[in-house]
Amino acid sequence: MIRISSQQIFSGGINRLQDLNSNLNSTQQQISTGKRVNQPSDDPVAAARILKLDQELSRVETYQRNVNLADNRLNQEESALESATDIIQRVRELTVQAGNGSLSANDRRSISSELKERLGQLANVANTRDASGEYIFSGFQGSVQTFQQNASGSWEYQGDEGQRVLEIDDGVTVPISDHGKGIFESVPASVTGEVVSSPGGGFISGVSVANEAALSNTNPGPFADDVSIEIGAGGAIIARDTAGATLPAGSVVPSTYQSGEPFVVAGVEVTITDAAVGDTFELNINDKQSVFRTIENLIAGLDSLDKSTPQGSAEFDDLIANSLRNLDNAQESILLKQTELGGRMNAVESTKNFLEDSSVYTNQIRSELQDVDYAEAISNLSFQSFVLQAAQQSFAQVSQLSLFDRL
Question: Is residue 178 left, alpha or beta, with left meaning phi > 0 and alpha meaning psi from -120 to 50?
Fold first, then answer.
């Protein structure tokens, strides 16, 4: 026969009541927090999976912030480039208007005045800042103003050639900036001619590409940068490359100089006027020129060139033609960058959608593991309350039993 002492009865009863009360409190906590797992002991396996899912959500949220930053930067750059394109298009319209031969000097100066305003607007666009105050076209030098005016009033690039990139997913990076040198500064310039030596006042004009294939064939050669032209004895046109070597036969057509008559050298049509034997000229090929310099040269020419002389008229016509070609090149440079931006923005958008889907899926699994079933929890709470109440009443009755009550 097993003897049960009063201490054992009290101890066992209290332990049972504590267990029931603990279960009741746990259910109450689940209902109040809305979570089935509030501590690892509630469900160790589920708790471990929830921890991993929380880490995944934290990773996704970090990349989502990066995606939003990349999206904002790329949209801001695209907006700036659209504004720049509109300004350059207006400058081109003014250039065409300035080329009208019926305009007076005052009319050209009026056009020059608007060009100065447009030049300032373009500089403002190139000096666009982001929300943190950094210049978006300055490369890594975000605190440095992208374009600044030098002592002569010309706009010059002040940043570097760095390109910032941002990781928007594991192993996925996207460039979020472009330096202004590549967009506004290093723009292919039209082929131009200049006088090297002509004591008698000879001048070069009408320089234009006549044969793209012939010019392209010369580009890889030693005269990719320039070609020198000399008027030799008997009017022979002598063309040399940058190393001083004479271009092969057939590179100059016709090969005999006639004042005011065009000829083609290395695929470029040229007209030289009033030159004498020994005069030298130079063709600048594959040069780069900023869109700011193009507009500045146009403004200077409209303000200073005298169309009343043959030389002044030829220089003015060349100025208009070269400006139009350079402005077209500037627009093409921006268009290429906009196309590149479009590809980046598509990549960012795809990653953004993927991260959103991943977040939804991860949250769904996490919810299934952690969220409480209120109907089940409330039912358990009612049952546990009933059991606890019954246990308390039973314990109260048992605790009153004693042999002394029978004496």
Answer: beta
- In this structure, is the dihedral angle defined by the CA atoms of residues 215, 219, 225 and 231, taken in order, positive or negative? negative
Whole-structure pTM value: 0.76
Q: How far apart are CA 25 and CA 21, in angstroms?
A: 6
pLDDT tens readout for residues 172-210: 999 999 999 999 999 988 888 899 999 989 999 989 888
- Ranges of beta strands (E only) in 237-304 are 237-240, 252-253, 262-265, 268-273, 280-284
Q: What is the pLDDT of residues 129-162, one digit of tens each?
A: 998 999 999 999 999 999 999 999 999 999 999 9
Could you tell me if 170 and 311 lie in one domain? Answer: yes
Measured N-to-C along each axis, helices 105-126 and 44-98 cross at an angle, to the nearest 10 degrees, of 170
208 and 333 fall within a common domain: no
CA distance 159 to 142: 8
Domain membership of residue 108 as a residue range = 73-188+288-348
